[in-house]
Amino acid sequence: MPPTDVSTEPDPAADAPVDPPVRRRRPLFYLGLALILVGLAILGWLAWQFWGTNWQSERRHDQVTEAVEKAWADGEDRARTEFGEATAIVRIPRFGDDYAVPVLEGSSDEVLAAGIGHMEDTAAAGKKGNYVIAGHRVTHGQPFADFPELETGDLVEVETRSATYTYEIDNGGTDLILPFTATWVLDQQPVNPDGGVQPPEGVGKRLITLVTCSEIFHTDDRSIVFGHLIETERADG
Questions:
Q1: Is residue 92 a contact partner of residue 168, using CB atoms and an 8 Å limit?
Q2: How far is residue 172's CA from residue 153's CA, in Å, rounded to a whole number?
Q3: Is 85 in contact with 149 (CB distance < 8 Å)?
Q4: Which of 5, 78, 195, 228 could hold 87 in an S-S bridge, CB 3.0 to 4.6 Å?
């Protein structure tokens, strides 16, 4: 049988470059990428909460303070701002000589992001009853950041258009921690049902109560400080 004739001509297909195999991206790659993005988003949110909100609220504090001082100069008892009605300015020497934070009516998130809130249905500054004010301990200007440093005998000055009321603190900033449901601290004459810290007897009926979160991070507990009026200085005119 004659030999088969085999062609020796080169095969063009044999010399053509071979494409490397396409590697499919594994699901773990996308999962890792998603986790990184989530982590960055969380870090950004935390940065905004701890620094951004403070920067924003400090600007609001200044705006509201200027607004209420202008309203007083115009003979008005309160200033109507985009964040709420401002009625007073609080100064606490323990927190520094330059400490001055406006007080707005109510306790909404918007109010507490612009200053200290005067709790609804509690007495007005200097009047008989319990003048209750609340503020953030962290974020949003954190006006009560140094709350644990308050001591018995410290002073709280509340300036209004008609007068400046000076209260003396009756317990330290860490002496009374309660759940937010303990509404007896808002009463006109608070009485501790457990017989613990409360406004002492013999200090009169013109009281003040300061309220803030008991811990830096989110908590349902509140730190409470009571005080009583010791001096009223009427404004000129």
A1: no
A2: 9
A3: no
A4: 78
CATH code linked to domain 34-234: 2.40.260.10
Cα separation, 151 vs 211, in Å, equals: 15
Assigned token pair, 199: 């406004």
* Cβ contact 160:234 at 8 Å: no
Q: What is the mean pLDDT of residues 83-103?
A: 95
Q: What is the pLDDT of residues 26-47, one digit of tens each?
A: 676 666 656 666 665 555 554 4
User: Percentages helix, strand, coil for the chain, rounded to the nearest 5?
Assistant: 25, 25, 45
Q: Which of 57-66, 114-123, 186-195 shows the lowest mean pLDDT across its residues?
A: 57-66
User: H helices of 48-84, where?
Assistant: 53-73
- Dihedral over Cα of 78, 79, 81, 86: its sign: negative
The domains of the chain are located at 34-234
Sorted by sequence, the CB contacts under 8 Å of residue 169 that are 6+ apart come out as 150, 151, 152, 153, 154, 155, 156, 225, 226, 227
Q: What is the pTM of this model?
A: 0.76
Of the two residues 234 and 236, the one the predictor is more confident about is: 234
Q: CA torsion, points 166, 172, 175, 177, in degrees to nearest 10? A: 50
